[in-house]
Amino acid sequence: MLLCGRCPTMRAMSQSISMSMLIVLLLGSCAATAFAHAQDDGDDKKIACYTFPKSTESYKKKLWDGYEISLGPARNASGGGGDDCTAAIYNRAGKVVFRTTGFGVIFDQEHTGMDFDGDGKGEVVFETDQAGGAHCCWVYNVVTLSPKPHRLFDIGEGAAVDFVKDKDGRVTIWDRVGGTYEYISGAARPYAERALRFEGTLVDVTPEFCGKLLSADNPDYSYWMSTLAAENIRKLQGAKLKPAGQNEAEEIASALLARAEQKVLCRKYDDALADLNLWPEDSRNEMKNNFAASIKEYSPEFAAHLETKASPK
Length: 313
Known about the structure:
This protein has helices spanning about 20-35, 210-215, 220-225, 230-235, 250-265, 270-275, 285-295, 300-310, and strands spanning about 50, 60, 70-75, 85-90, 95-100, 105, 125-130, 140-145, 150-155, 160-165, 170-180, 190-200, 200-205. The protein is an alpha+beta fold. Strands 1-6-7-8-9 form a five-stranded antiparallel beta sheet, with no helix packed on it. The chain has a four-stranded antiparallel beta sheet with strand order 2-3-4-5, with no helix packed on it. Strand 2 (about 60) and strand 3 form a beta hairpin.
């Protein structure tokens, strides 16, 4: 299932079309995805509840080992307060062992049954809307039923999430995270990829994949390299970039920040700093402070590292 938060990314399109066309296509893709999100899936009827359009139907579905889910409009909803829809897992005694509530809730039939924790048993996956339809805030709730039902983790605050099973049966969670946006407008915001696995907690395993992420095998990286040609870097360095506004050389600035972000997630700190030092000198320190704030959640090491590095004159 592809939520609007997982609309087609710019990397697959950016080599052949302009930024303005990217924005048009991205918005169109989100609208189409949001529409498809509310439809039934043929024989496998979507088990979902939404605030808008308001759902009235409730669902029940048997799982395994005597567990069952119930999903639908919340009986005691306040009305538009983020508690309109709810889903619960019941054990064979009829006791609730897990519940999620939000503006919308979906039982994720595609990913339910995947083994995220490596115990040989599948998990249950819901998607919960925490922001009334905003594409940023559909969060995956991954719940294990063994040995006792409990939440393994939530993920989804970034722009996109994907779950990929490898040949050994391990599930890698790909999280597309946004970078600093102070100098960038709308769909031009920089993004980079983070890889996670569940090993008692979510563990960042991005460096395992950096040979590919920082190579021509990654369409994002190819786009960054072509956009950051020497003549474009000179254009960027001659631009006057201001926060919270449409800037000239915005596409170049976004590519530079995204490439630096990916290098940070790959723990190539010196290379990331070298990229950031290509920024126009008059706003470089301000940009670095914004960059450090945006990356701190994912790499507190680099945020601290960046704050101790003086910009070269």
